[in-house]
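Ticket #4471: structure output looks truncated?

Reporter: J.K.
Steps to reproduce: submitted the chain below (289 residues) through the standard prediction queue, then opened the result file.
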Amino acid sequence: MGKLVVQQSWINDSEFIGYFVAAAEGFYQAVGLEVLHRPGHAGLTPEHTLLEGTADIALCAPESVAATIRDTGARLAVIGAQFQKSPLGIVSRADDPIRNLGELRGRTLSVPDMNRAMVLELLAYAGLAIEAVEIVPYAHDPRPLIERRIAGLVDFIVDPQYRLSLAGVDPYAMLLFDHGAPLPNNLAVVTEATLLARRRELVDWLLASRQGWQENYHDPAFYPARLRGDPLVESRTLAHEIYANGAFQPLVETPDGIMSMSDGLIDGVVAYLERVHLPVERGLFTPLI
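Returned output as attached by the reporter:
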């Protein structure tokens, strides 16, 4: 039986549940694979584990992959995409929504340090002067938005929407994908050497993973409960995990098939990376299913 080690970008929460379903239901085993998922953590660059030889597949952000290639000369290949649209976006209050970047003029936006450069570039791309928007740090705490001390915050949109709702505030969210940054996320990335040597196993992994995601979405409330504690973390409530699982669904599903990459998606990523001075060859993208 072939063994594949998959490095995640974050902890074992519902963001990755489709892979855990594939393992729990024997979909990987049915195609002769033993798959080990390694959780990530803050500050991790998942694709670096490929270069270190500690993982076979890494789930990555496209701009991070481009920067790694620029900085290391690594020979990498993107074989699939989990999120067809990155969940990164701006969350605001429904009673005072930020519906486009222009509506940030004269407002305060809370932004994580890791996303600051992207947000500043998007504001400039939208024709806003940097001084037109007050950027303040974001520590993954929505209370300033709940208390109206900021107009919006940048994050994966699911968690702050849930937390606003718990506080009795109706949230409004806009994806950066639809406002100048047409990026997928959790790209399945391998080294060119792994692609050459283990192509059949990678195809089988993608197809079994697709099956896991499809099974999960038959009832988004079922597997968060069944897999809670092993392998899903228990640091969030079950209700939170169920909410997140359902909210991620439209960002994962695509008419082309889960884990696929369409020509249009690839073209958008390549054009964006060129615009932000992280150019990559289109041949980096080698969709296998």
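Triage note (M.O.): checked the attachment and the full token line is present. Residues 274 and 280 are 7 Å apart (CA to CA).
Status: closed, working as intended.
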